[in-house]
Design a protein that fits this description.
- The structure is a single chain.
- 43% of the residues lie in helices and 15% in strands.
- It contains eight helices and seven strands.
- Strands 3-2-1-4-5-6-7 form a seven-stranded parallel sheet, sandwiched between helices.
- Helix 1 runs parallel beside helix 2 and helix 4 runs parallel beside helix 5.
- GO terms for molecular function: oxidoreductase activity.
- It comes from Mycobacterium numidiamassiliense.
Amino acid sequence: MGELDNTVAVVTGAARGQGRSHAVALAEQGADIIAVDICADIDAIPYALATKADLDETVRLVHAAGRGAVPVIADVRDLAQLDGAVQAGIDALGEIDIVIANAGVVAIGDTETRSEPVFNTIVDTNLKGVWHTILATVPSIVRKGRGGSVVLISSSQGLTGKGGDGSAAMFAYAASKHGVLGLMRSAANAFAQHSIRVNSVHPSGVTTPMILNDFVVNRMMENPNPAVSQMLLPGVPLVEPQDVTEAVLWLVSPRARYVTGVALPVDAGHLVM
């Protein structure tokens, strides 16, 4: 028996990294998973994104946990595409109880100051994509009629301006992740009448391919920015996906049944300094 038995969860960016960690942990607690990912690279983003093979591995791990999984390829920037993907999952698994809006991109180390393609891609994915995820999923929770939980994955950069370097990439990342906080607060108010709780999680750097790739690592070595990664707790350069997942699990569980409208950092003290 798990805390999330007989529930259906949507996880965006589910093919690898935090998204896979969240999806598998939710399954281990009893949830069936609609696993959404773009499974393609984006021209303006300077590192490789997840693949269909990555998404298939997430599904394999969910099945290994004894739960159902529907893999759907969709770009969160495209509302019609996302609507169709989510509906395919609903058709297979039933109406939704839980939403983890996790899909996001970054371009740390891209120092170009006037790159509109970079700025627009980051904002469209990290902010508009979260809004699209809300639009595509919450009506299903309302139809089901027993309440639910929505967790928006933001960043410590959604609560601070530390690390700003004047680049289009960092301006877009901080602005988009701050915007997710506004979406969370607005949605918490909008959907409370349906007993839907909405919260956000704000990790500092996480050991995922979004950070641990050749482009970001090389640029950080060339131009170190201590404000991006400096933590209060010693010996924690980056947090692990599981650390973020533990916060997500608590927020969607009955243990947090009266918690809504909360911005929860998982940052080893990054925001204290």
